[in-house]
Structures
1.
Amino acid sequence: MLLPVVALLLAAQLYGYLARRARRRNPVLGWSRWRTASFAAGLALLAVALLPPVAPLAHTDFRAHMAQHLLIGMYAPIALVLGAPVTLLLRTLPARRGRALTAVLHSRPARLLAHPATALLLSTGSLVPLYFTPLHHAATHPAGHWLLHAHFLLSGCLFAYVIAGPDPAPARPGVRTRLVCLGLAIAGHAVISQLMYGGYWIDIHAPVAEVQGGAEIMYYGGDIAELLLAAALVATWRPGRRPQPVADTAPGYRPARI
C-alpha cells in the first residue's frame, strides 16, 4: 500500500507547487482555488479506492471491485480533469517548453487519441473483454491488477477530458457530438450491467449474489457519474461567437424592406 500513498502525495505536492508558481508569475490572473480543490478531491477519491478498507476487500468481493472500478475510472477522473492540470502546466512552463507541449496537443496522434470515439472505445468498450472473457480472472494477479487500475484511470481521464475537460483540446468536436458519445457510454454501461445481472455470457469467478450486487453498483453508480459529467459539460461549455453582419454605412444606404 506504500506505492499509491507515495504517488498520491507526489501528485498533490506537484500540483500545489505549480499552482503557487502560477499565482506568482501572474498575480492578476492567479489560479482558481476551485480547480485546486477539484484536483484534490480527485486524489482523495483515488486514495479511498486504492487504500484500506476498499482495496483489500476488492480482491475478495466483486461488489467492492466494482465500487473501486467506479471510483478509479469514473468519479476520480471527473474531479482530476476539472482541475485543468494541462492548463496549469502551460501557465508555468518556460515559453519554449510550452510551445513544445502545445505542438504535441496539436499533433495527429494526439488528435486521434482525443477523439470521442477513441475515448469511448478505451473506457466503456474495454468493459466487454474485461467481464465477458477470462481477462478479469487474469487481472487478479498483482501485475495485471495494477495495469487494470492504470487503464481505468487513464481511460477515464481521457473520456472526461474529451467530453467536458476545461483544458485545451484542438480536436474536440461540438457539444452535440460529445453528448451523443456520452449517451452511448450511458447505454453501454446499462447493457453491460444488465447482462451481468442476468448472468448472460459473463466470465466472472464470483458468487451470483456478488455479481448481481456489482451489476447494480455499475448501473446506478455509473448513471450518477455520467450525470455529473454531463453537468460538467454544461458548466465548461462556452458557445462560439456568431459573426456580426457588417452594416453598410455608405451615404444614402437604406435596408431593403421584406
2.
Amino acid sequence: MKIDGHIHTPYCPHGTSDPLKAYVEEALKQGYHSMTFTEHAPLPPSFLDPVPDKDSGMDLRLLERYIQDIEQIKKEYQRDIDILIGLEVDYIEGYEQETSDFLSKYGSRLDDSILSVHFLKGPVHYHCIDFSESAFQGAIDDFGSLEKVYHAYFRTLEKSIKADLGPYKPARIGHMTLVRKFHHHFPSPADWDAPISALLEKVKQGRYQLDYNAAGYFKPACLESYPPQRIARQAYQAGIELIYGSDAHKSKGIGQGFDRIDHTLTTG
C-alpha cells in the first residue's frame, strides 16, 4: 500500500489555496491507497506565536469547518482512497495543559495525528526554529550557542514523547530532526546525534510511530529527510514504525521525495 501520512490543506494559513479535491486527485493519480490530512492545529490560546505573521497554526474558528470538509470528502472518495482526518499538533513546553484540553475536546473526531516540535522555549523568548534562517540565528543568540539550541531541541522532543496529553495524544512524532533544516548554513555540532539512540528507545517504549518526512530534501539548506536515512534505519531496526510524509503544503507536493526515501523501512 502507498501511504502519505503528512499532508496540509487550504486551511493552512501559510500554505496555498489548493482545494482538498486537488490533493485527493493528485494522490489518486500517483496511486496512493491512503492519505492523512494533518493541518497545523490551532495554537494554545495563551501562546503568542513568535513568527511575524502569526500564522503557524489554523484559526480555531475554522476547525469545525475543516473537520466537516474532510468528513465530506472522505465519503465522496470512499471507494477510491482511504482519507483520514488528522492534525499536526504542536508540543510547546509550558502549554501542555492547554494542548491536553484541546485534544480532549477534538481528539475523538480525529483518525490519525502528528505531534511536532516547532517551538523552543528560550531563556528570553520562544522561537520557531524552522521559520527562517534569521529566526534560527535569533534562537542561537538567545540560547547562547548552536550547541545549546540543539540540546534544547532534543530535550523538548523528549518532553513531547513523555508528555501526558491525555487519551487522544497523537501517535506519531513529527519530523524528529527538524533542527537540521538549516544545517548547510549552520553546520551541526560534531556530536549532534548523540541523543538519538535514547530518544528512539523512548519512542519505542511509548509505542509511537515516526514521521519519515521527505520535505527536507526540498529545503536548500537541508537536503535530507527528517530523520536522515541512517537514523530511519536505526529506528526501523529498533522496531519503530515509520510512516512516509510528504508534508505537502500544495497539491503538487503530494508524493514529494517519495523516490528518495528508503521504502524498505516504511509502512505502506
